Amino acid sequence: MNSRAIAAEVFGTFMLMASVLGAAFYSFGAPAGAAGILGVALSIGTTVMVMAYAVGQISGGHFNPAVTLGLVAGGRFEASKAVPYIIAQVVGALAACGVFSLVGHTGATFAANGYGELSMLKASLGEVFILETVLTAFFLIVIMGVTRANGPALLAPVAIGLTLTAIHLMAIPISNASVNPARSLGSAIYAGGEALSQVWVFWAAPILGGVIGGVVGRWLLED
Fold first, then answer.
1. Which residues are listed as membrane-spanning (predicted)?
2. Are 27 and 7 in contact, with CB atoms under 8 Å apart?
């Protein structure tokens, strides 16, 4: 396993998690006015875009266990490399959570994903599971499409970042927008309680969606 690829996944996921937490914790209560859901969505979308440009050539720029497993299902990534990538992604997410726990002003739920009382719209488990599965599948199909051999390589990170922005605009009111098991685990561990008891949903649904998206993307794009 390439140690630089692992380091790139740690760093990229750290920045992804930091973009979620920083926007979620601080932009809503800023004295100059809240950035709100749009601000959070743009924060994570632009961060993933620039990280894909910065280190994507080293590791592929997954930063997400659902993306890694979706690319395995789509025939774009070796299954033997998946576990080290996922461990690196979890480490990056937890490290970012650690930094923000030291900064403070984090809120009781630590921007955790969830349903019921942890959902802005009090969405049910079923509603959250469906949305997280569908949106992650959508995300993987976009990734498969823009990173294909004859695809728009230079603009691929832009398309991926904008897609993630759109996903967050749709999903924040329902599930606080996961589509990324590492991101969900980091928040859940630091929040504890109900968030931690619900975190399985944000592993199961995004991974299921990622695998579906990888398989569908492979079928759509095959020659």
1. 7-28, 34-55, 85-108, 128-146, 153-174, 200-221
2. no
- The domain locations on the chain are 3-221
- For tokens 């098991």, what's the residue? 181
What is the distance between the alpha carbons of residues 44 and 204, in angstroms, rounded to a whole number? 22
Report the length, in residues, of the chain.
223
DSSP 3-state of 5: helix
State the maximum Cα–Cα separation within the chain, in Å, rounded to a whole number. 54
The whole-angstrom separation of Cα 10 and Cα 122 is 33
pTM (two decimals): 0.94
What does CATH list as the number for 3-221?
A: 1.20.1080.10
Query: 129-156: per-residue pLDDT in tens?
Result: 999 999 999 999 999 999 988 878 889 9
Angle between helices 156-175 and 125-146 (to 10 degrees): 180
Measure the CA angle with vertex 113, ends 184 and 203; round to 5°: 45
pLDDT in tens, 37-80: 888 999 999 999 999 999 999 999 999 999 999 999 999 999 99
DSSP string, 132-198: HHHHHHHHHHHHHHHTSTTS-GGGHHHHHHHHHHHHHHHHHHHHS--S-HHHHHHHHHHH-HHHHHH
Count of CB atoms situated within 10 Å of the CB of 99: 13
